[in-house]
Amino acid sequence: MFDIVHRIEWANYIDQAQGFTVTARSDKSMLTSIPAIQAMGKKSISKKLTGSDEWREEDETKEGLEIMLSLNNNMLQILLNTTGDSLHRRGYRQHIGEAPLKENLAAALVISAGLKFRDPIYDITCGSGTILIEAAMIAKNIAPGLKRTFAFERFSWYDPAY
């Protein structure tokens, strides 16, 4: 696995100023330790970037490339997270409280309720207001995810002209 990860020209994808994180998963494979898979991946990428055995620590404060190493039946997939936050996030919620209602589920509830938007709407569940926000966005014909950003937009090699 080390050699396979090491073959990739990581300098084409990882901006030295941004950094990177490695996540992993394993299913029905000989390698089962997630921390060991992550450590091996980090070491391989660091060695490729620096040309030495120097270990490059992750900086959680930097928004860099997120790399996932996925082992399934001893087959390795190397994935780049181009999305960022989960797709149900619509981009307007800054803080998440305890047990928040996902934005896409709130929109589905509003649509399935058959609201006509000429009468007041009440949300008595005393939550974060997600249902009311989604109802207002639907009433104003604001597209879902209009304010959402994606991880690939921060990649140094991404050209927004395309």
Explain this structure to me?
With 162 residues, the chain is of the alpha+beta class. Helices cover 26% and strands 14% of the residues. The chain has helices at 2-6, 34-50, 103-112, 130-139, and strands spanning 20-27, 65-72, 75-80. A three-stranded mixed β-sheet has the order 1-2-3, with helices on one face. Strand 1, helix 2 (34-50) and strand 2 (65-72) form a beta-alpha-beta unit. Helix 3 crosses helix 4 (130-139).
Give a brief outline of the structure.
With 162 residues, this protein is an alpha+beta fold. It has four helices and three strands.
Spatial sequence of strands, sheet with the most strands: 1-2-3
Q: Strand-and-helix sequence, N→C?
A: HEHEEHH
Strand content: 5-15%
Classify the helix fraction into a percent range: 25-40%
Largest sheet: 3 strands, mixed
Please work out how many helical segments DSSP would assign. Answer: 4
Summing up helix and strand content along with how strands pair, one would put the structural category as: alpha+beta
Radius of gyration: 21 Å
Secondary structure: number of strands? 3
> N-to-C terminal Cα separation, in Å?
34 Å
- Note the overall shape: elongated
The average pLDDT is: 82
Q: Stretches where pLDDT falls below 50 for ≥5 residues? A: none
